[in-house]
Amino acid sequence: MRGGGGSGAPWRLLLRPVVPAAVVAVVLGTLFATGNRAIFVPGKTSDGHHLIEGACSSCHRGFAPIKNESCAGCHRAELAQDTHSIRVFEDPRWAEDLARLDASRCITCHGEHHVADRGVTVEASFCFPCHDDVPEKRPTHKGLPASSCGDAGCHNYHDNRALNTAFLTREAAKPDLVDRAGLPSFRRPTTGPAASADAPSGSGDPEIERAWLGSRHREAGVSCGDCHGEGPAFARSPGFGKCAECHGFEHETWRAGKHGVRDKAELAALEPGDARLPMKPGGGERPASMSCGTCHDPHTVDTRRAAVEACLACHDDQHSRLFAASPHGRTLGSGPGPTGAGEVTCATCHLPRVTTDEATGERVVVNHNNTFTLEPVDRMAGMVCLRCHGLDLALSSLLDRDLGRRNYAGRPKEQAASIRFIKNLAAQRRGGG
Amino acid sequence: MTTFSLRIITRGALAGVALSLLLDHCGQAAAAPPAGIPPELVADYIHAVIEADRAVYADRVVQRLQNKEGVIKASEHFEADKALPLPAQMLRMGSQLVSEKGVGFRYALISPWAINKANLPKTEFEKQGVASVVADRTKPFRTIQEVAGKRYFMAVYADIAVSPACAACHNDHSESPRKDFKTGDVMGGVVITLPLP
Predict the structure, then answer these.
(1) Which of A81, A104, A254, A293 could form a Cys-Cys staple with A260, CB 3.0–4.6 A?
(2) Complex ipTM, two decimals?
């Protein structure tokens, strides 16, 4: 027996590790190649990136450490306004501070595949390695806890000019409701109405044509052929690349947010089941996946539907379910509509209207990055809330996470620490003067 | 023949020596390092531009439009207030654009009486430098230092209140630790940092 087995033993010894390794390699390779990459993710991916964790190359270049350039690929717009710009830290005056906290690298504070609160993986007192002299240099800040820099509504690392003493003082004095019609309104199209639908003969649908006749597309002179093409080039479903030809800002901002980031990462379209937030069960009115047409019917161009009903067809968290009965939800129907002045929809806060300067003149457009106003909260306060509310109510409400879950039905449980601080400071100065 | 040969040989030798001397001289000239511009002179040039731009903006723009003609104000919160940026902000915005270009050199304002506490002297060099130019505004404070493995030429120049608007604004600001500035006073220093090869 020993002699018989002796001639084959070396091969069996060699095959023992090779075969399982080959099987593992084939399995892993197949999983990787077919896009099932969850097994390769070393830990829980942040809320901001979990939808693209299957596209490793969005951030990683092989096994090299993540460089700032990878982050800037998607976050260039935010970084262009960064007041703690990476370039600042090339100044040798910061060398000692960088040795304590390397603020010249995005991943120092935004580690990935960790459990993190709001995408920040350093302690809330992260300002202190560089700014530990603040209590000494600013007597007004003596005794404030280190964690209060960022969570009190005072400072925002990437835009430390957003909340300054003068701004807080001026805005904190305003009443809770300052102007219900403070949001920018869309301008009416100036191109002139399209005369008639130009769909190829025989393919016209009376219902679609009726919808189009009452639409903004018709007002703007956009006819069937402009989207669908004509003759042999006719496309029944032109795809959202066609929308992007005219709505470039909306398309780019959509790809920067959770709704469209999978398109940017060249992954399959977002499905409601991919989300971490509660979504409505499948079937019914819940759409299967995300594209422009999921929210926008291109024939009616009904922005009211896109601004409320389309959101609530999927979103099923407490905040969403309480919208209709909330103070904001009750404004619907109060304006001239659709989404007229004075109405507050889901999109008012989560897809805010902004004014852009373009060569063709000023335009009111919609920022379709649905996560842009969520963090830091002062961004939503500045872009949206202050158009109708005083800063005291706005900031105090945004910092009260429980009130947010209840869709702002009620008063914040406490005044934002920044507002208290500024009011106390003003009172002290008046007393001192 | 002999004399002719000797003459040829002598002339050839002389020509060879002359040629070798010439080549040697050329070789030396080619091998010599380029003279370049000393870093202190480069810093002087840069400072001259910064100082001139700063004086023009403070006096011909802010002092004239705000203090003399009352057309528009200059404000720390110039965007919200739809006003002119303060002269110090003007310098900082320019400095930020330069640093974003990644060319390596940088400049900044520091002061022991800074309104924005981030602009207080921070390093030992900055503390010594600003103290030196406050004591003697005519001489920039210069040094060469190695920081984190890189060599830098650094200089601090006196920053002077060139118009009444400079002194008035600092004296009136609630966060200003000094309230008795006069036109012509040294208010702090302009720091210029050049990376060295």
Answers:
(1) A254
(2) 0.75
